[in-house]
Amino acid sequence: MATPVTVHAHAAPQGFIRKYIFSLDHKVIGLQYFFLALTAVWVGMFLSLLMRLHLIWPNAVLPLVGEIKPETYLSLLTMHGTIMVFFVLTTAPQGGFGNYFLPIQIGAPDMAFPVLNMLSFWTTFVAFVVMICAFFVTGGAPLHGWTGYAPLSALPSAGPGEQLGADLWITSIAIFCIASLMGALNFLTTTLDMRAKGMTMMRMPLTVWSWFITAILGLLAFGVLLSAGILLLMDRNLGTSFYVPLVVVNGQIMGHKGGSPLLWQHLFWFFGHPEVYIAILPGMGVASQVLSTFSRKPIFGYKAMVYAMLAIGFFGFMVWGHHMFMSGMSPYSAFAFSLLTMCIGVPSAIKTFNWLGTMWKGHIRFQTPMLYAIGFVSLFVSGGLSGPFLAQPVLDIQLHDTYFVVGHFHLIMGVAAIFGMFAATYYWFPKMFGRMMNETWGRVHFFITLAGTYAIFMPMHYLGVAGGTRRYSQYTEVAYLQKLMPIHQFMTYAAIITIAAQFIFVINLFWSMFKGPKASDNPWEATTLEWTTTTPPPHDNFGGVTPVVNHGPYEYGVPGAARDYVMQTDPATSPAH
Amino acid sequence: MGLALMAVIWLITLASTYFFAAKTWWLPVGAAEAAQFIDGQFALTFVLMGIVFLAAQLSLGYIVWRYREQPSSPPVLYSHGNTKLEIIWTVLTTILFIGLNLMGSRVWASQRFDQAGPGAVQVEVTGMQFAWYFRYPGPDGKYGATSPKLMDPSAGGEAAVGLNTSDPAAKDDVVTGTMYLPVNREVDLSLRAVDVIHSFFVPSLRFKQDAVPGLNIQMHFKPTVIGEYEIACAELCGLGHYKMHGMVHVVSQADFDKWLAAREAEKQ
User: Distance (Å, rounded) from C-alpha A44 to C-alpha A39?
Assistant: First the structure.
């Protein structure tokens, strides 16, 4: 049982700057993260559009952008990947929704360390600005891919963009790591110390569990990436040789000796694999929350869901080597990494079963958040099932570094995670902005986006099976790749339509913010604490009242109850769980 | 809405499955010893995952339609789960995934744990921005020394890999830009890279291995069908990555000997 904790009380500030810019309020900070990620996702999506256009019309001269050269294409893919992974997939689910709703869902007035919270947002913002600057320096943005494999990333002479652009890229990531470490610390402390009376760990909504576990992963993973990035900066600028052995670039002997390119890969993926779960775990949390709410049924196997997420987090740190089966790493260790990778498939499968079990014999309501949660499950299954192919080293011989991998991770950590964010946006929009989003346009947006993302990413698997290598700016130089061009054409057309449909979302978002119908306090008839307070919540979240929790988070369809749901704060005399 | 959602999910599922099952785009025809096993393991994984894919997606579609809220719906099943079911599907998934993994590991072990047998034809592959070079040790069976100081990519051939021509073992080394291999003979491959990481990928031979600066990676494989096969670099290596292309000619032993002798003769 949690004991009530007295927290600092900071009064609602009145000035514009303290209220909206350098705010200490976790809700404002959550929105800041949300809008930062929204900006970043448009930048990242625009870059992907340029890539797709270049792939099928390599010589086109585009307005504003001009001609895309092979090295430009590589810069685009590097920046697309980096911006999407760090400033979208890490920023929105955790920094955005987590910041806004974790304190409210556990009944706390704010985060444990509001100043740290503000700092972590503004540090993230600085990281984003530094990242964008890489486009505009001499040589442009780096071309080494979001994975930044050394020596390519460590040698300024290895290609265009590898000069100042690469330094800015590494610096930005290092700053981002610091921001994420601060954020993770805050999330962990808040979850452990600031739960309301009666909010035991096993009564926390699965969203809170997902943010909590994500914060643990962040705390352990970002420190490693930060160190790795600093070493890379030193190799580039101070003449050290952590990652670079004696190499000859273009006939010139570089001044390095004795470094190991594989060391970078180990450090990078020790972060990189947990990062996949940092992106997807909050999506799992939201999907669980929404599926239960809109099926009007308790979540199937709450405890199994919690243990599955913990298992995913635990195993997530022991599988990084599966990115390196072809790297020259010892083939014996491939055995272990491969087996552990298969193990991580098990909790993922458990979660899928439980989502289906949650909807089974429920009363499914098809509002937009629910559509996106169902889409999440579908994409999670599709993206997940290509995992057991890639987890087998022997199949990786054919599939590694092909579009099969690109299709796999886009479905599962890209689009599935983004569907989680869409579900979260449509679900919490009424609470955040006090108005409802338009349902009809929400549905139109959903169906185009679902069909569109499958049309873009499913064919990538066919490409990969046929040996279609990734990170090729053109498919014209290799005869067997030329035959695969029709697939590329289809994907580009699908991408244009899907990207166009995202305007529906943005217009709906901003229009509803000002013109949408007023939302009640609990429009979805949900049970968790954010729906017990006013819409939008007051500065201290509960208007001077400290909530007391008497029930589990997903009490829907309770036999004998007055209505079909029992909120977490309802009196204990209601039929209790 | 439930019906529309079911229709869309089913349609996506069936269309996705069709292009796999019809093998419209599939693995290139295998031309190496390992191809049969790799393709078999791929097909097995494909069938098993395909079944799970169909079962999960089709039931997802069915459930959302079947349990849509209607005035006539019976009360929801108030249940927090079923431990027995959880255990059953956990155990089944574990057996499926681990079993699949163990089946695939045999060929991995035979390919990567053991060295090439005696009598294998030796070839050294060197990757650099943005070309592949192939070196044959010649009649003495020994690679001559190379030196970074001597590397001159613009000159191509021996100079590109930095062959030290004053080394006696280097006298009969042959360096080419195209790879020739005798059919049905094991190849003892040494992989090197001089500048950044490259990856030697020959889809038809079911072969891929990164070439890493500072490492000399030993691999072996056996081509089994005469023909010409394309090499594509599979690790991002710089602006010319997409055109870092090469060819493997798998020829009869007699043709291979003739080709190698002609290269030796050119050298003299």
Answer: 9
Look at residue A296 and tell me if it is in a domain.
Answer: yes
Q: Which of A528, A566, A557 is nearest to A199 (CA)?
A: A528
For chain B, say whether A574 makes contact (Cβ under 8 Å): no
Which of A257, A269, A291, A364 should be substituted to probe chain B, the one whose Cβ sees the most B Cβ atoms within 10 Å?
Answer: A364
**Residue A17 included in any domain:** no
Contact A361/B9, CB-based, under 8 Å? no
Whether A559 and B75 lie within 8 Å, measured CB to CB: yes
Mutant choice from B1, B3, B5, B29 vs A, greatest count of A C-beta within 10 A = B5
Query: pLDDT tens across A54-108, in order?
Result: 999 999 898 888 899 999 999 999 999 999 999 999 999 999 999 999 999 999 9
Strand partners, B251: B182
Cα–Cα dist A332/A296, whole Å: 49
Q: Give B-chain residues touching A160 at CB under 8 angstroms.
A: 239
Domain range list for chain B: 2-68+81-112, 121-267
- CATH no., domain B121-267: 2.60.40.420
CATH number of residue A220's parent domain? 1.20.210.10
Is residue A234 in some structural domain?
A: yes
Q: With an 8 Å Cβ cutoff, is A576 touching chain B?
A: no
Number of domains in chain A: 1
Provide the whole-model pTM. Answer: 0.96
Beta-carbon neighbour count of residue B72 at 10 Å?
4
Q: Which one-letter DSSP state was computed for residue B184?
A: T
Domain that holds residue A145: 25-566
